[in-house]
Write a structure and sequence with these properties.
This protein is 0% helix and 60% strand. The protein is mostly beta strands. The radius of gyration is 16 Å and the shape is globular.
Length: 190
């Protein structure tokens, strides 16, 4: 299933500090109180606390910009698009402050005890095969991509996504440009 960036609805944060656009969630049409997993992109416009999500594990990676995070029990963190994904419990009182704009981040939230997530930033310079085996897999394009598999033959623009189900298949990813970049998001049963 192709999930176009242009079709996503921007939802303002309760604290007014940014916007979130949902990419995909399970079960379909679930809300913030009853999802098993959720993938979204957020625009951070000003500093403030994260919303609390008790019982949820959060996974975050920056797409653009820079962000300072304060998480209890950890040293202050400075994140950029080159930083490895960060994971933390959703009930922790986390505070974020943008340090360079625009800040866009990838958020993957999983209900603890039901699902876990793996995020992998990929960059390929030639057609590359990826084996899809998770309960759900999403490919979030950072550059224009072409995806080919038994279930798909599609072109993605930057920030478009493709969602795959639990069927094992081989996906070929390529780009007409010198390199293709994307996030591989794997959701697995805990």
């Amino acid at each position: 299933m192709i999930l176009r960036a242009a079709d996503r609805v921007a939802v303002p944060w309760r604290n007014g500090g940014g916007l979130t656009r949902e990419v995909a969630a399970h079960p379909p049409h679930s809300d913030l109180g009853n999802f098993d997993w959720r993938v979204s992109l957020a625009e951070v416009r000003r500093g403030g606390p994260f919303s609390s999500f008790p019982g949820i594990d959060r996974h975050m990676a920056l797409i653009s910009g820079g962000l300072e995070l304060s998480i209890p029990g950890r040293d202050a963190l400075s994140l950029s698009s080159d930083t490895a994904p960060l994971s933390f419990p959703g009930e922790l009182p986390v505070y974020a402050e943008p340090r360079s704009e625009p800040v866009t981040d990838l958020n993957v939230m999983t209900r603890r005890g039901r699902f876990v997530a793996r995020l992998t930033r990929c960059r390929v310079t030639a057609p590359t095969q990826v084996r899809l085996e998770a309960d759900a897999t999403l490919v979030l394009a950072l550059t224009p991509l072409t995806l080919r598999a038994a279930s798909i033959d599609a072109n993605l623009s930057a920030l478009d996504a493709a969602r795959f189900g639990a069927n094992t298949e081989i996906l070929t990813v390529q780009s007409a440009a010198a390199a293709a970049a994307f996030w591989l998001i794997e959701i697995l049963t805990a």
